[in-house]
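Supplementary Methods, section 5.1.

A reviewer requested that the exact input to the structure prediction be made available. We therefore reproduce it here, unchanged from the version used in the analyses.
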Amino acid sequence: MNRIEMFKRHLDEKRAIKVISGIDNFDIERVKNVVSAAEMGGASAVDICYNEEIISAVREMTSLPVFVSSVIPSELVNAVRLGADAIEVGNFDAMYKKGIRVSADDVMDIVRETKRMLGDMRTFICVTVPGHIDISEQIALAMKLEEMGIDLIQTEGAATTTPSKAGARGLMQTAEVSISNTVELARNTSVPIMTASGLTTTTAPFAFAAGASAIGVGSCINKLNSVVAMVAVVKSLVECTTRRQNREFLNV
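The structure derived from this sequence is encoded token-by-token as follows.
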């Protein structure tokens, strides 16, 4: 079984975990630490920025499927040539930090151009649906992406949320928008949904209960200062996202 087929199996079983090193994280040693932690912790895939040196280094060091995220079609296509197992239009956080908002039309333009440039090259494609646009626009975009044959849709929402509470309540507030978007998109499309943006070990089970086939987890892992700590979080996520535990959660 090749790498992306393993990830697809985890999607089918609704237990896929993608560890995100950060679309604007170009510190190769830190990226390698995150990737090592993801593999040791039992994650399903890793997501890295577009950088030729980083892609090559990560491809050599892990057996996990490697997603490369970008909003530039030429970078996504070149990532496939460099050995990426999947490409992702998104993680838009780096743009949001600059005050740039991405529209549904922007996303479609990027996807169309990427697919045009890919030509006959086949690859697994994930697309992030902007969490700040109206939910009706998100659903319409997801439907268009399904018609185009996109393999996976990722939600987001943390960038639009400012928690007002501490502790578990604050964690729920941060994840609430992305999880609620998951509910709506899962109801209206047959494309697997990956919930991302602000998830932690506390909120990950809610994402799967909401209909997600996968979660994308970044800051609660990549902001940590030791590989040991990162591994511990990944293992905790793996433990809390098995199908048995999801059923137990739903029956509480």
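The first strand starts at residue 16 and ends at 20. These observations are discussed further in the main text.
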